[in-house]
Amino acid sequence: MSHIYGFTPGRSETPMPQFGDVLDGRTVLYDAGDGIPTPTPARLVALMEYVEAMQR
Q1: pTM of the full predicted structure?
Q2: What one-character-per-residue DSSP string does 1-56 give?
Q3: What's the rounded Cα separation, in Å, for the pair 7 and 44?
Q4: What pLDDT digit, counting tens, does each position of 13-26 carry?
Q5: CA angle, 2 as apex, 15 and 46 as ends, to 5°?
Q6: Residue 27 needs a FRET pair 20 to 30 A away by CA distance; which of 38, 42, 49, 55 works?
Q7: Are 4 and 44 in contact (CB under 8 A)?
């Protein structure tokens, strides 16, 4: 999700174009698997879930 959002600190890879402005708005608590629910833009979570579904 950080690549989609445009947040890649300390990485040499080129991130996707920043979609932060488009994805901002309402947030939801999202647990990325580390057990820590983090406020995350709802649109970003929906986009990530869509991309994951395409890969199945």
Answers
A1: 0.64
A2: -HHHHT--TT--SPPPPP-HHHH-S-EEEEE-SSS-EEEEEHHHHHHHHHHHHHH-
A3: 13
A4: 665 666 667 777 89
A5: 115
A6: 55
A7: yes
